[in-house]
Amino acid sequence: MYIVIVGGGKVGFYLAKELVEANHEVLIIERNAAKCAEIQEELGEIVMRGDGCEAAIQEQAGCGRADLFLAVTGEDEDNLVASQVAKHVFNIPRAVARINNPKNEMIFRKLGIDSTVSATSAIMSHIEQELPSHPLISLMTLRHGFEIVEIKVPPNSAIVGRSVRDVLLPHQSLIWGIVDAEGSPKAATPDTVVHADDEIVAVTLQESEEALRAALIAPSAERSF
Amino acid sequence: MGCGRVGSELATAFDAEGHEVTVIDINAYQFARFLPASFAGQKIVGNGIDQDVLRRVGVEKADAFIAVTAGDNRNTMASQIAKHIFGVPRVVCRIYDPIREKMYANLGLRTISPTTVGARLVREALEKE
After folding, report:
1. CATH number of the domain that B48 lies in?
2. pTM for the model
3. Which residues on B lie below 8 Å from A80 (Cβ)?
4. What is the C-alpha separation between A137 and A217, in angstroms, rounded?
5. Does A111 sit within 8 Å of B76, measured CB to CB?
6. What is the mean pLDDT of chain A?
7. What is the value of ipTM here, to two decimals?
8. How far is A16 from chain B (nearest CA, A)?
9. Which residues of chain A have pLDDT under 50?
10. Domain count for chain B
């Protein structure tokens, strides 16, 4: 495969190294001359100096025949533009963009870049289970603004003891399943009763995330103070 | 978005004409440097490619969005967010690189390349000399 990588920082460098070792044809486009020299020293003649967001540079890099395009600079906006140029000018079959702000995943998708990778999200998903103050975990972004989230029901939540049909959810949100405190998963039917420490898996609109969190974790009025 | 020379001039003019104006810049010093004391609009420090910042300034209710930072990519990303995510009816985006400008014009953004426009004006001026 011919793979073009925009951004010769740490991520671009190690990607190129792995891909070269796997016998792929790789070209890194990097703006900074010193970084270009470093990469050339380590990996050989696989680096081109230039702004990977420019169509002229992408043309020189042979993007027209590339099978895969990886935009991995440190700036979300540069990765977006580089990927859009690759897609729209060179019809690259597959472009993957690195993002810092996890919320940009949805934006990139709406703007035609389907594959994004966010170190922020990856690290968050590793630590979120351990953060008691952060009971809503975004598991996956879906199309049309939806996402799958997981929420642990705190013992003082107003919905403890209620059945799913009596849980008032925000518009276009639904409870999909529940993993109980013992770790057994079950499908959520209208009669399923919510218990303390249940992990609720739900589908919601991204903008309703906060409302859903509030609906599932808010303490009951009698007990709140 | 972007309180440089062009951004501040536009903001000042729209404000003086009685429009409700919000200026966003990542550097608060730009407000002091370029906006007159009479400027009555909102000044927000933040990154315009961050959807939370855009939402905070009420971009959903905006009638127009203008992206004139020094960065082409920041301008195109913010403009696309304003137009395609938040549905702002009028969006104008400055892109210095003429090739990129053409591409985004083809993708439906209202774009201006000061490079192309500036070169043309200089040439016309020269021809009149």
Report:
1. 3.40.50.720
2. 0.75
3. 73, 76-77, 80
4. 13
5. no
6. 90
7. 0.89
8. 24
9. 222-225
10. 1
